[in-house]
Design a protein that fits this description.
single chain, extended, two-stranded antiparallel ribbon, 4 helices, 48% helix, alpha+beta
């Protein structure tokens, strides 16, 4: 175990194969678990849950909000921006608005439009 990898109880190898866009594919992924899970079904649900968060939150924040392209120089500024992006994401979702680039653009720098989203206060 590499130094500093404390708390890891299991390593899991996941092999996926099938067809994507009419082409065969095969991939192998490895996961480190902090719980000593022995059930393949429970591990599979955990892996699916991980990718659900990755696809439904992190991808949206990177692609639609451009988080990975932002060049912030201090951890303090990055933290503030992350909080604001999370607030924007949650505010849109709470109003039933999909967090797409077009919807973020609709509200960017438009205080009156943003204010209308706070009608629940």
């Amino acid at each position: 175990m590499p130094k500093g990898w404390n708390g890891i109880k299991r390593f899991v190898k996941v092999r996926r194969w099938g067809t994507r866009e009419n082409k065969p594919f095969e991939e192998v992924s490895f996961y480190a678990l902090s719980k000593p899970l022995n059930s393949a079904r429970i591990v599979a649900k955990a892996v699916q849950g991980h990718w659900s968060v990755e696809n439904n939150l992190h991808w949206v924040k990177d692609v639609n909000m451009g988080e990975d392209d932002m060049s912030l120089r201090t951890p303090h500024n990055a933290t503030i921006l992350a909080y604001l992006n999370n607030a924007a994401f949650n505010l849109l979702q709470s109003q039933g608005i999909k967090p797409t680039k077009d919807n973020f653009a609709k509200f960017s720098n438009k205080v009156n439009e943003l204010y209308k989203l706070f009608n629940f206060f």
